[in-house]
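Before relying on records like the one below, remember that each one covers exactly one chain. Contacts with other chains, cofactors or solvent are not represented anywhere in the record.
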Amino acid sequence: MPNSAILFRNIRQLLTLRSPSGNAGPRRGKELSDLSIIEDGAVLVRDGKIAVVGTTREVLRAAKSEAKKLREVSCRDKVVLPGFVDSHTHPVFAAPRLIDFEKRVAGANYEQIAEAGGGIRASIRGVREASRSALTNKVLCAFEEMAAYGTTTVEAKSGYGLDFASEIKSLEAIRGASKKFDGTVVATLLGAHTVPPEHCTTPEEYVRIVCEEMIPAIARKKLARYVDVFCERGAFTPEQSEKILRTARENGFEVRAHVNQLTEVGLDRFAQFAPASYDHMDKVSAADVQRLAKSDTVATLLPAANYFLGLKDFPPARELIDAGVAVAVATDYNPGTAPTASMPFVLSAACTHMKLSPAEGIVAATFNGACALRMQDRKGSIEPGKDADLAIFDADDYREIPYWFGVNRCSSTLLNGKFLPRADRKEL
């Protein structure tokens, strides 16, 4: 059980992300930069929920009657912010794809990597051969590593099994790991990640399996909240993607979509499904930017993938933000293109390569990430009644979080009112 009452006091900078306007939807425009900082701040946590937020003096006054029962934690010389919401990850895999990495940096293309035994087929083989318990342990280790960097809420996709049994096994591994993890996990079926090798000449048959077998079975088992699809050259066509998303909605799922990573796909055809987010968004038309600016669908940008692949171009974050689009950032944690659990690194990449300000990056990684999962009523800001998810950093100023890249300055993480058990965690 969470500690019944914890008082975090004397916080140098407390980033509450409370909206001055009371806006409950995703932040955009100027509001994307508003961190609602309290200096010498304090947070009172009761039974896993945020109870009181304010200056240390204000919170001490409010907690006076229970002072003797409180566990007090001094956060002098610390920055405290809402736990990161990593709204796009692929944690169910058996092994890193080291062949891909070595061959890619030597200049090999996708076909050459596949011929050498790498590529997504290596991940498919690993997941299909692995036991559910082994996958559960791998996923749990990934969640705990993410939490060590300050992440408290994780969206976790299947998508490396790509047959009925292996996709079920992958989602069961996510569920098993989530039961052992103190943070919050949102499961997503990504059976439509790519067409598996055995269906390379019969892709429509695989689409039928996803629609008629996978989606209904996972709905019955309640193994996922979302269904995702990778609509891209070499994966699924817009028409196939529409069919998958329509089936998902008919079976009671919410949806999201990998789109516009390598090639531009018009988003108007997907609006009918009310997706929570469009993810990647490297290529986007001016017309679609304007459509998104009028929508609560979040554009989730994944700069770690562009960085790891050595790409020159990154998602057009400034164009999106300046037009009024709601933007989130996430790790895209996966073995092929983004093997990182670090949201602070993603913030650094977002600032240096996509030109977000540090404040915009933090809102995109917290509140707007929660909006990308439609969980902003519980996550993404430090306000009374919300889940007690806090990331505590050794820093004098929040801008240090993206500034110091390649190191972890997160000294402690509180997940639903419970401290992350970590052997190397410093006592505050």
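The chain has two domains: 5-82+379-419, 84-372.
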